Amino acid sequence: MPLDDRAEIRRVDKSGMLQFSIEASKHYREATRLAGKIDVHFAEPDNIVIAGMGGSGIGGELLKDYARNQAHVPIEVSKDYTLPAYAGKRSLVVIVSYSGDTEESLSAFLDAAKRQCTMFCITSGGALLEHAEKLNVPFLRVPAGMPPRAASPYMLVPQLVLMEKLGLVTGVSEGLDEALRILEKVSGENAPEKPTVENQAKSLAQGLNGTIPIIYGFGIYRAVAQRWKQQFNENAKIPAKWETFPELDHNEIVGWENAETLAECLSTVLIREKDEPLEVRSRIEITKSLMPKASKQFEAYAQGKGTLAKMLSAILVGDFTSVYLAVLRNTDPTPVKTINLLKQKLGETGTRERIIGELEALAGKQKAKTRKT
Ligand code: F6R
Description:
This protein is an alpha/beta fold and 373 residues long. Helices cover 51% and strands 13% of the residues. It contains 16 helices and nine strands. The mean pLDDT is 96. Bound molecules: fructose -6-phosphate.
């Protein structure tokens, strides 16, 4: 069994993606320490927009799920060049880009600056850091040198801490304390030295191999399902999809009616927890019973008591699974050739240059204004 051969895992996972899952709790601890440095005193905004793409954008999605039953102002995750129409002086816009060089994120930064929104940046460097400094926008600089999706602790935790400082959410520090303990446990349970029979991520990877996984989340697992999908795409290099309860019961389930042989190429992973509200549990069980028998069904249970431990433990199992699936497919999980190629080709279109030019002009204006006063 290739997954029970440590040397085989190392041979395929050349660039060491698995290590980020093994050391997840260490990264969350370090991200918590760094986030403790955030020293901003913003007035309470009317709304919050988190702008970020891919592995950086998922932090905003997770924050949105965490805050959904707590925050009394709307939080929107914006994954585009421009911000929603309502964003203005009373909005807080958090721009999150690990590299600091993503075109859409730089454009959102420019848009927020033009609209005079309150701004905060989370990045490891790039043009975003450079222009945050030039425009006096507060930022948190996170350690560089990781694949952005592996840096998700550094993208998520500062957002949680910032929202807690603003009084919009509570329980972040206690939640992270528990999460760190649970993450260590989950890492141990899914570690490469644990044989497949005792290792949930390895068995899931084996079961999913050869299929297109569709991840079903609910409630606080909406963005968790999205993260699983992204990790299957970027680590295992396979198509994957995600959906969330209860909405999927109003369209997705009909899609299985005539799926016939198509269903054989698909699999579902249901993200679950032992404390599911009764209405959710009944819904999930009924939905499962209506799915065609040909499709492979799997379940992954979150661990812990608090919201953060539950969300992060479920994510970690997905992260491990995606790397083991990459190993089974003899694919180095780290490189994202197509994303890099796309960014390179987009770079040749001149859009990024135009955005940087506008940012330079804004910085120039600001400098001149400061000199005058
Ligand atoms: C690569 C990855 C991508 C990037 C995305 C945006 O590991 O996860 O999804 O996150 O292309 O780039 P950044 O995060 O640098 O803004």
